[in-house]
């Protein structure tokens, strides 16, 4: 245990401290200043406070004057419409239609048979969501912002594109959900109100390396149309660009339209990126194969 210093020692320490203070004041006077020791201490405190208020070099304490410009990644209603594909973006005999928002394919209507699944409740619900989303054209869910839609016909085939702004978390969740569908919904049965059964198969589709994230599905539905056996073939691709996305669905009773869907995805992604960067898409693309 240490011992406290004796009374004489404490007195000597106090005297030394007082002498140091006097020396500091004297040095200040020698520099031409007229302040006392207390003035010097006050000046030191003021300097410390002033330094504390300074920010590191290159880090201003306030934003520049003037209101900030709108984010280039924010999709507007006019921007969504400008980002839509045109006939010039597609090769072949695709003709743009005016009523694509009313398209509904009855082969996509049906209640999923739960007995087809080992994990019935989870997988059957996801497969039902797939059918309903394809029928209602909202596979990624309801947009949280502006959206626009267009469609094209070629024989008995159709090509549908939607451009929309979404909540980022919901958009990522939608793409993750799509990624799992080929495993969860490999093959299942759906039954319509009349008791007619359809066989649905879901596989992964090839997707071009565009946008920030992407998913693709190839879906076939075997049933009847006009009392005749029919197979509906669809390729679906969703691409995220920032917090916006485009979804392209193509196919029909004529068969596979994968090549047209891929071309539409490439052109559509380029148009969306141009709009989000504040530009205007070219009316006649020059990068078609």
Structural account:
35% of the residues lie in helices and 25% in strands. With 289 residues, the chain is of the alpha+beta class. Strands 1-3-4-9-8-7-6-5-2 form a 9-stranded antiparallel sheet, with helices on both faces. A hairpin with an 8-residue loop joins strand 6 and strand 7. Helix 3 runs antiparallel to helix 6. The radius of gyration is 35 Å and the shape is globular. The termini are far apart. The relative contact order is 0.14. The N terminus is likely disordered.
Question: Can you tag this structure with a few keywords?
Answer:
6 helices; nine-stranded antiparallel beta sheet; disordered N terminus; 289 residues; 25% strand; 35% helix; alpha+beta
Summary, kept brief:
This protein has 289 residues and is α+β, with helices and mostly antiparallel strands.
Structural class: alpha+beta
**Helical residue percent?**
25-40%
Sheet with the most strands? 9 strands, antiparallel
- Shape call: globular
What proportion of the residues form beta strands (DSSP E)? 15-25%
Q: Indicate the mean pLDDT.
A: 80
How many helices?
Answer: 6
Q: What is the CA-atom radius of gyration, in angstroms?
A: 35 Å
* Oligomeric state of the chains present here: single chain
Describe the strand arrangement of the main beta sheet, using strand numbers.
1-3-4-9-8-7-6-5-2
| Topology pattern, helix = H, strand = E | HHHEEHEEHEEEEEH
Q: Which spans of ≥5 residues are poorly predicted at pLDDT below 50?
A: 1-38, 51-72
Overall number of strands: 9
């Amino acid at each position: 245990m240490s011992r406290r210093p004796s009374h004489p020692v404490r007195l000597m320490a106090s005297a030394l401290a007082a002498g140091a203070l006097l020396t500091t004041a004297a040095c200040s006077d020698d520099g031409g200043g007229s302040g006392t020791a207390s003035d010097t201490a006050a000046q030191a405190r003021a300097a410390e406070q002033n330094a504390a208020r300074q920010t590191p070099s290159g880090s201003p304490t306030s934003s520049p004057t003037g209101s900030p410009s709108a984010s280039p990644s924010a999709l507007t209603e006019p921007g969504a419409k400008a980002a839509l594909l045109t006939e010039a973006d597609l090769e072949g005999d695709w003709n743009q239609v005016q009523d694509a928002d009313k398209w509904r394919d009855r082969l996509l209507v049906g209640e999923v048979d739960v007995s087809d699944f080992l994990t019935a409740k989870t997988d059957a619900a996801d497969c039902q969501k797939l059918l309903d989303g394809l029928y209602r054209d909202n596979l990624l869910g309801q947009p949280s912002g502006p959206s626009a839609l267009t469609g094209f016909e070629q024989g008995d085939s159709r090509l549908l594109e939607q451009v929309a702004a979404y909540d980022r978390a919901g958009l990522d969740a939608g793409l993750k959900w799509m990624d799992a569908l080929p495993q969860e919904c490999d093959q299942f049965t759906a039954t319509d109100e009349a008791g007619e059964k359809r066989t649905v198969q879901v596989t992964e589709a090839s997707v071009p390396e565009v946008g920030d994230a992407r998913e693709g599905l190839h879906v076939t539905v075997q049933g009847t149309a006009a009392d005749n056996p029919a197979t509906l073939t669809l390729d679906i691709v969703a691409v995220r660009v920032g917090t916006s996305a485009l979804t392209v669905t193509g196919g029909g009773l004529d068969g596979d339209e994968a090549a047209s869907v891929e071309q539409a995805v490439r052109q559509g992604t380029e148009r969306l990126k141009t709009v989000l960067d504040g530009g205007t898409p070219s009316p006649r693309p020059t990068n078609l194969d």
